[in-house]
Amino acid sequence: MLFNRKDLLGLEFLDKKEIQIILDSVKPFKSLFMRSVKKAPTLVGKTVVTLFYEPSTRTRTSFEIAAKRLSADVVNLAVNASSVVKGESLIDTGKTLAAMNADYIIIRHSMTGAPDILARNLDASVINAGDGFHEHPTQGLLDLYTIFEKKKKFENLKVLLVGDILHSRVAKSNIWALTKMGADVAVAGPPTLIPQGIEKLGVKVFYNLDEALKTADVVNILRIQLERQKENLFPSVHEYVELYQLTKDRLAKAKSNVLVMHPGPMNRGIEISSEVADSVNAVINEQVTNGIAVRMAILFLLKPKANKNAYSD
Ligand code: CP
């Protein structure tokens, strides 16, 4: 089966085979890192635009490096210095970029569904780099790739997501993809940070982290997103740290080969201690490295519609 999509908007609507095709495509791009010349001609003559309405270190830089390694021309639109601040709508901004023959638009937006709106209105391939609390599909895929690289399987693997599940688009993308691939997914955190009814997605819920950690093969720690909280959802950061921080002592009671992941950015000393973040169990930097190869694979696999004004080659 071929991968036949224009856009990558989320992992909810990809089937298991499509996720497997993406993961299987990553390895050759990762092996490019080992070469002295880290470039392939795959996207020569193509234009990739990044359009980030929210801050980013990893995702935006990773997409830029991925696109440049595939020989694309890359434009990073500085949203705060663009006509967006004069009131230009998302669709008009997208159509303006399309009129400049952008082939790929990579968008991060605080509004759920913003990438979907662009995808329905443009011929360019649209990639969701994080929309509101909804999805962050490339982070989900790089997490899956890293898990498979280390554990060699998904079937019955116990993956625990810890912390602010309610506000986490990373958690949603991980849950959609991991459950399809056959993993046993659980979440742990304070009741106020766990969405009601999440069990319907095939996820087990723990409110006690020590209990949840006992059987986990992988633990993915999520950032407490204080900036997205409209009301105080736990009594104090101090209490959160006491109950839910992944500390050296807690890790000592988990399986000795448990994989510790974090999508970043980390709040060291809040959801994860520095000792754990820098421990031999942690693969946080490997996640970042894999992110480039995963994004190269996605740029390679997606198929923008032919631009109506272009001459054929
Ligand atoms: N993981 C992630 O999305 O990080 P950035 O916000 O730095 O892109």
What does this structure look like?
With about 325 residues, the protein is of the alpha/beta class. The chain has two domains: about 10-135 and about 290-300, Rossmann fold (3-Layer(aba) Sandwich), CATH 3.40.50; about 135-290, Aspartate/ornithine carbamoyltransferase (Rossmann fold), CATH 3.40.50. Helices cover about 35% and strands about 15% of the residues. The chain is built from eleven helices and nine strands. It has helices at about 15-30, 60-70, 90-100, 115-120, 135-150, 170-180, 210-215, 235-245, 250, 275, 285-300, and strands at about 45-50, 75, 105-110, 125-130, 160, 185-190, 205, 220, 260. Strands 7-6-5-8-9 form a five-stranded parallel sheet. A four-stranded parallel sheet has the order 2-1-3-4, sandwiched between helices. The chain is globular. The mean pLDDT is about 95. Phosphoric acid mono(formamide)ester binds near residues 56, 57, 139, 263 and 264.
